[in-house]
C-alpha cells in the first residue's frame, strides 16, 4: 500500500506544480487554493508512505514522478518546447525511478 500512496503523492506533486504555475505567483485564488490543497495531500501521502519505505527511495521516487510529470504536463498542457536533449533527460530520470523502485525493499 505504501507504493500506492507514494505514487498518488507523486501525481499530486504534478498537480500542485501545475496549479502553482497557473496561480501566477499566487495572485489567482482558485489555482492558489488547488496548489495548497494538493501540496498538503501530497506531503501527507508521502509521509504515510515513508512509514514503511526507506527515505532515500521514497523521496527520490516522489520527486522523480513530480519532475517527469511536470515535464510531460509542460509539453502537453502548456505548450513548452520539446527537444531530444530534454526527452533524454526525462528518460534518464524515469530510468532512475525504475531502478530505485527495483532496488528498494518491500
What's the short version?
It contains four helices and no strands. With 106 residues, it is mainly α.
List the helices and strands and how they pair.
Layout lengths: L1 H21 L6 H21 L5 H22 L7 H20 L3
Helix pairs in contact: 1-2, 1-3, 3-4
Radius of gyration (Å): 15 Å
Query: Largest sheet at a glance?
Result: none
Give the SSE order as H and E letters.
Answer: HHHH
Question: Percentage of helical residues?
Answer: over 70%
Q: Segments where pLDDT lies below 50 for 5+ residues?
A: none
Portion in beta strands: under 5%
Alpha carbon gap, first and last residue: 10 Å
Mean pLDDT across all amino acids = 95
How many domains, as an integer? 1
**Classification by helices and strands:** mainly alpha
Q: Helix count?
A: 4
Q: Indicate the overall shape.
A: flat
Number of distinct beta strands:
0
Main location: membrane
Subcellular location: Cell membrane
GO molecular function: transmembrane transporter activity
Protein name: Guanidinium exporter
Structure description:
With 106 residues, this protein is mainly alpha-helical. The protein has one domain (2-103). 79% of the residues lie in helices and 0% in strands. The chain has helices at residues 2-22, 29-49, 55-76, 84-103. Helix 1 (2-22) packs antiparallel against helix 2 (29-49). The mean pLDDT is 95. GO terms for molecular function: transmembrane transporter activity. One of its GO terms (biological process) is xenobiotic detoxification by transmembrane export across the plasma membrane. InterPro entries: EmrE-like, Small_drug/metabolite_transptr, Small_multidrug_res. It is a multi-pass membrane protein. Keywords: Cell membrane, Membrane, Transmembrane, Transmembrane helix, Transport.
